[in-house]
Amino acid sequence: MSDFYENVFDVVRQIPPGRVTSYGAIARYLGSAGSSRMVGWAMNLSHHQQNYVPAHRVVNRNGLLTGKIHFGSPVQMEELLENEGIKVEEDCVVDFDSLFWDPVKELGGTFSNNF
DNA sequence: ACGTTGACCTATA
DNA sequence: GTATAGGCCAACG
Predict the structure, then answer these.
(1) If you count Cβ atoms within 10 Å of the first and of the last residue's Cβ in chain A, which end, N or C, has fewer?
(2) Across residues A6-34, what is the average pLDDT?
(3) Which bases of chain B are contacted by protein, using any atom under 7 A from a CB?
(4) Could you tell me if A65 and A59 are in contact, meaning their C-beta atoms sit under 8 angstroms apart?
(5) pTM for the full model?
(6) Which domains, from first to last, does chain A contain?
(7) Which residues have CB under 7 A from strand B?
(8) Burial letters A62-71, b for 16+ CB under 10 A, else e
(9) Dist. CA A19–CA A57, nearest whole Å
């Protein structure tokens, strides 16, 4: 497994429950900004990983559940998200801006404790 | 091996 | 504000 995918899975696993992030955010965190597509591909491989990867917490920039189709069922992603406490309507995450979890801002080297 | 596609994002018109 | 173009890198046909 390439380190890239491993990092992606590691970041996705560290996403707190009830929170969501975008492919671009992960790609930027890995330093491969612009290669957001690779993150999506990594998610595709996440199903083959023995370690469970909450790919349902990863959505696109618009908060749209574009990858729900790649789950067991098209509604599987919505079920999981609602199970986490995230409201989903029209395949879109409600309050996505508030639920957005940026790995660069959270895990990003500088542990900003100035909260 | 070449061409196309893909769970995307950013920029310009 | 929407629409179109470009970029990115890996997998599939």
Answers:
(1) C
(2) 91
(3) 6-10
(4) yes
(5) 0.88
(6) 3-106 (1.10.10.10)
(7) A 22-24, 27, 34, 36-41, 43-44, 46-47, 55, 58, 60-62, 66-67, 69-71
(8) ebebbbbeeb
(9) 7
C8 closest protein residue (CA to C1'): A35
Q: How far apart are CA A41 and CA A48, in angstroms?
A: 12
pLDDT digits (tens, 9 = 90+) for A34-76: 788 999 999 998 988 888 999 999 999 999 999 998 998 889 9
- The closest of A96, A103, A101, A33 to A65, measured between CA atoms, is A96
* Location of structure tokens 């990863």: A58
CA of A61 to C1' of C3 (A): 18
